Amino acid sequence: MSLSAAVGVARVARFQADGLAAFDATPAGLLNALVPWLAFALVAFVVLLIAGHPAHALGDLLASTVALLAPAVLSHAVARIWRREHRWLRYAVALAWCQWVMPPALLLALIGSYMLMVLGVPESLSEPAALLALLVYAVALNVFLARRALDLSRWRAAGVVAVVNLGTAAAVVAPGLLAGLLGGAA
Question: 71 with 95: CB under 8 angstroms?
Fold first, then answer.
């Protein structure tokens, strides 16, 4: 991650719109933002191949690739419909880079859950509370990105987030469900 991208991620993670200017909103910038995630998918693929699970390895690699590319494809379609295509690349690059916020946010949620348990809150309440806080943050961050990068109203930004996340989930899950249905019918 370049220093500029790291600064952008840190600022956007705190809902500061000026962080968007730190991202390279070019096709090469989008590729640079996606490559680290693709590298993780390829490493997992190789590990599963070495472990002797080639079908699982290929399925996971394909699902990871779809999960990586679907947000850009789906958001581009929505940006075109709402005549924001000229701002889309800025959004796509920022969205890809800002996924790096989620691992530290998860760590903070786990620490929060632990702190609640230390204070006497039962684990059955502290863990869901921490995960709910993480989910709320993730949705708020995604809406913020769509709103500021695409220059949309709050409702349209929420619509982008819904389309991108539900569409990506469907694209990742649907092939497995279809395979299960077709496999069960045979």
Answer: yes
